[in-house]
Amino acid sequence: YKGTGEMASESYPMSAPVAGTCAPYKGTGGLRKEDAEAEKCDVPRFSDCTTMDVLAESHPCLNSSCPFLVATQTLKCAYACTSAETCSAANPHLAFPNGATGRCEACDVPGCALCSVPLQCLRCFDSFELHDDRCVFGRDEHFERSKQAVEFLLVVAVVSIFFILRRPYWRKLRRDRSVTIPCREDGSGDKPRAIHMYHYEVLRLARVHHHWCKVRNWYVDGKDRVNADPEPGLLGLCTNLHHSLIVGIGMPLYYNFMVFTTGLLLLFSLVHFVFSSAWLDSAALSRLNPIGGYANDDMHCDNLNTTSKRDKLDQTAVEVLQALGRGNLADYTCLYFMGLALLVAFARWQKAFARRFWLQFRAMRWHAVALRGFDADQTDEVALKKAVEKFLSWKLGRSPENPLELAYVSICYDAHRLGDKLPRLIDRLVTLEDVRQGAYGHTFADTAEEANEIADLIHRATGKDVRRVGATRDEWLAAARQKFEQEVRDLLDLPAEGEGAVCGERTSGALQNCNEVFAVFKKVEDCVEVMKQCTRQPEASFMTSLDVKGIKRRLKRSFGSSGALLEHEEREEHGEYEVFSMIHEPVGVCWHHYGLSDRERIRGFACAVFSVSLCLLAIYVFVVYPSITYSLQYRAVVDASPGGMGSKVFGVLIGTSNWLVCVCIACRVTTAGFLRTDREEVVIYVCFTFMCVFNTLVNVGVAIKTVFANERIWIEESSMDNVRAIDWEGRVSQEIFSMFFPGSFVGCLLWPLQGFMWPFLEGFLNLRIKKADNLTARIAERRLEALPIGLAWDYQGSLTCPVLGFLLVFLASSMVQEMLVLLAAWSAFFYCLQHFNHLRMAKIAYCTSNRLDTAVLCSWGLVLGEVAAGAATWGVRVCGWHWSAIPAAFLVGCSLVQLCISRLARPLEWSWSEFADEMSLEMRTVTLEETRKATLYDWANCNPVLVLKSQVLDLSSAGIPPQLPFCVGKAHAWEARRRCHAQGTDAKAPEPQQVWYEPGTLYNNMGLID
């Protein structure tokens, strides 16, 4: 040592100790002349004693100029002689020079560089400041100085929230809008209410909608029979989600994968245990691993080969490590190929499971095929229905006397061009239906501006001054309906009432066909026949151009390759369309993205990538990097995690910033313009998982840096015979293990608070202070909806945690077994937690294809590639392989997983002839109306433009009656009320939302519904 805490780079050969004695090694023979003096301060020496207590009895430093004996931080058999001023330079944890014992002992003041007594500090380390005999971390001092200001702001925030919640009239609002609630249905007995009562009631209505959006029991025992109960309750927590149709095929596949992951990790643990038992004695291995960051007491100093470098192991210890390396090489190689085989087999099983699941339940995918090859001006549903029927009848070889009949066609309009006006009108239609069904009174349906416009319409129609005497529900519905229809006609450029037939003449800027139409069949058997004989692979690739010219070029190539050359006149007569089978439900189609050009999609995707990257960069620069430097500065002196005000602030900032990144990803992914939701889910999964894996690796890097910062003996090489290198690897493995447990479990338990409670409170407080003039029931309902079921977010942990855990395969550690068991335990724990979240806390969100599950299976190539790289690492260390074998093994391991899944499992390729052969006769005869009752959605009510069009135009000749939009929660509530009325007028509606109130009873309806 130079007296400053830095080790000299030279090595000092030592002579062997006398057998059977406990004494320091004597420097003879191999020492340089200038360093051979025993009185040299801060020179590392070794002894054959197991502890410093035994060595101290011989007082090896008593006669030197540095009289204090100090143990090095890493190895208990290494010591140095130092002065009172430099105790902490050799070991920052031993800052008290005890004159009575002649040793440097522990100081009970963290961050102290020199103690006079264990509890009194004289001098602190450079990054700490001395305050009243204690050392305060300098960066924490800045936070402490602002602590009072922070506490004051918190008190102000709590008081403000209390007044917001309990005193809704804390600020003046516009007085021209008083809430009038009639006591009787005839409208008499109006009594004005205070403005704050309006807020209370709107929030209550929003809470009821929040309740309806959750998963409910619409099926009986997982069968396809619709529950006839008008009050479908929440599903039981013990519901088998592997065989229940709730949000589509995505949820059963997710829980299947979680079970597979748990079983695979347990199997890995068993195999690793067998190999460890066969290749290496666990007792011998434990002697080479640290406990709590220091060398084990069982690592005796007589293992040191003092005829060579001072940190070499003897031959026995080297043989133990060689056996460990050979065992790990064979173990991890076996784990890789076993995992690869099981992963491919599971991918094939998941595909077979999806096929059986789809054949078991009624689904809209069995009633429709997608057709492409249309011109932009083909927007007449009646004409298109006839054209598609003619084309499909010709493809099936049907005679004119037995043509194929469709229920209707659903055109993919250029909805993106309509902008935000389209969802606003859809919400308005939802409001009209709620008022018509009696969900709430029309008082809660309008903003102040809308109420004034409707009042003017009523006044012009009836001469009634509704601002003074109020309007009845029927009067409001008639005026609101008139206003709504006019807005729809203006938005869609449709002819005014009575000016045209079904769709009328096209006008400038009218709707356009985006070259995709869904042909909907009345019976499943007709759709199956078309899929079996006419369709290509399901929907082709998402990169396939929807341009009509590209469609026609591909059609010509397909006709030519099959030899079925048609005469030009015949093709012109029957049409030229590509037919694709559907693997999605209508809720899996991004209807609002149709109309985006390829350039707009590319620009949107680039903007999304740039926005997310910029957000991540800002967080790493302004939050993560300062947090890392804060932690490293503290742990360089104190061998513990910082626990001051700074650590709490950084913890809150990092958690909040990660949540903001998730919000950014969810918002920006829609700008990419994908036409199917499963593509959006894959992008979300990739982005979120990449962020979490990167954060994990950053944390591991910080842990490694921390171990290096605490290292006071320089590691010359990371070889198999270097005791300090082996000790360092064990300490790093301990850090990684402590990162996973209990951190991963605690983080999952905090997710319901961060993911559900905070968004609800944020929306609630925002609505609570919102002006009544701009607040309606529908606005409040949308704001207080729970977070949807996000399988793309849920899958993330199943990759991030194994990536973290399997980092131990690169290190000489006996903790691999415990890590594998804990990974399996975490997977089982997360399975139960998500089971609860999906059934009790989340809003319904549909996942109707297996694309996301396939992406997750392929991404597990990273985990298996990590195992392969770990095996190659031990090949390099034990067998002398070239270092390039490690990255090569990782790349080959990942690529082999992708290749095997894509070629052997083919999870995204379906044989529709197999579907047709396996489908039961009962399923073939299911009608569209029966499926509609089971799903509540179809290819018409999910198409927002078609819904609006059906409200203002007569599309009955096209098979499309007036449609109500499918909205999660609303559709279920409407269906429940319909069933209630069907059972009789005396039946009570489920979760009643009163419309007519008696004075004094309004406060009784403020309670939240569990």
UniProtKB/TrEMBL annotation:
Keyword Transmembrane: yes
Positions of transmembrane segments: 149-165, 253-275, 329-349, 605-628, 648-670, 682-704, 739-765, 786-809, 815-833, 854-875, 881-901
Lineage top rank: taxon: Eukaryota
Coiled-coil residue spans: none
Keywords: Membrane, Transmembrane, Transmembrane helix
InterPro entries: Growth_fac_rcpt_cys_sf
Entry protein name: CSC1/OSCA1-like cytosolic domain-containing protein
Record organism: Alexandrium monilatum
